[in-house]
């Protein structure tokens, strides 16, 4: 990593909250985003990320109007502390976003264009870049997603219930309502 580089190519991470196929509107701006789950055992990636965030802070000092007493928002967060979901256990996590759609490649450098092939739960490498921001409400360091290389499938991570789970719940509600009408 260069002296004041803000770019990092991660080691193997798991992808979650994948919004890379269509942009979402965030604060009236279209944005592509993904959450990177970084194993705490990946010291190289974590050290590179910490150095890149430090570099972004140094480069952006005039943007930040930084006061040492001020807490800056930082993108790297501890999954064991901030999440109760077992998927985040033993990991740090961060959200990376971009106004531009990142390239998503497979391990053979073929572009992935099908969202069924890149989803919440698969694994790969990410090229990310850190930068300083200063808005009316917040100051800090943010993470931009550049490119992704998928290397491995993983179990689907999905907060949605299955149709079967929903039908079981609906049947239970119907029975509960019927019991109220029985004399």
Explain what you see.
This protein has 183 residues and is α+β, with helices and mostly antiparallel strands. The protein has 4 helices and 8 strands; from the N terminus they run E-E-E-H-H-E-H-E-E-E-E-H. It has helices spanning 43-59, 61-64, 79-82, 163-181; strands at 7-9, 13-26, 29-39, 77-78, 91-98, 103-105, 123-134, 139-152. Strands 1, 2, 3, 4, 5, 6, 7 and 8 form an 8-stranded mixed sheet that branches. The longest helix is centred in the last third of the chain and has 19 residues, at 163-181. The termini are far apart.
Features of the shown structure:
37% strand, alpha+beta, 183 residues, 4 helices, eight-stranded mixed β-sheet
- Report the β-strand fraction as a percent range: 35-45%
- Approximate shape: globular
The average pLDDT value, as a whole number, equals: 87
Number of strands: 8
Derived from helix and strand composition plus strand pairing, the structural class reads alpha+beta
Helix content: 10-25%
* Count of helical regions: 4
**For the CA atoms, what is the radius of gyration?**
20 Å
Termini Cα gap: 75 Å
**Could you state the order of secondary-structure elements as H and E?**
EEEHHEHEEEEH
> Main beta sheet, described?
8 strands, mixed
Which spans of ≥5 residues are poorly predicted at pLDDT below 50?
none
Question: Short description, anyone?
Answer:
The protein is of the alpha+beta class. Helix content is 24%, strand content 37%.
Strand and helix layout:
Elements: E1 7-9, E2 13-26, E3 29-39, H1 43-59, H2 61-64, E4 77-78, H3 79-82, E5 91-98, E6 103-105, E7 123-134, E8 139-152, H4 163-181
């Amino acid at each position: 990593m260069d002296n004041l580089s803000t770019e990092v190519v991660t080691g193997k991470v798991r992808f979650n909250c994948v919004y890379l196929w269509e942009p979402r509107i965030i604060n009236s701006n279209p944005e592509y985003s993904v959450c990177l789950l970084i194993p705490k055992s990946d010291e190289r990636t974590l050290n590179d990320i910490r150095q890149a965030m430090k570099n972004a802070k140094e480069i952006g000092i005039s943007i930040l109007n930084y006061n040492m007493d001020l807490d800056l928002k930082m993108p790297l967060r501890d999954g064991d502390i901030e999440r109760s979901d077992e998927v985040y256990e033993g990991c740090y996590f961060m959200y990376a976003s971009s106004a531009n759609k990142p390239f998503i490649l497979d391990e053979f450098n073929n572009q992935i264009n099908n969202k069924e092939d890149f989803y919440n739960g698969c694994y790969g490498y990410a090229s990310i870049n850190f930068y300083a921001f200063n808005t009316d409400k917040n100051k800090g360091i943010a993470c931009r997603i550049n490119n992704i290389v998928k290397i491995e499938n993983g179990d689907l991570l999905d907060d949605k219930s299955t149709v079967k789970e929903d039908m079981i719940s609906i049947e239970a509600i119907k029975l509960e309502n019927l019991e109220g009408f029985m004399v």
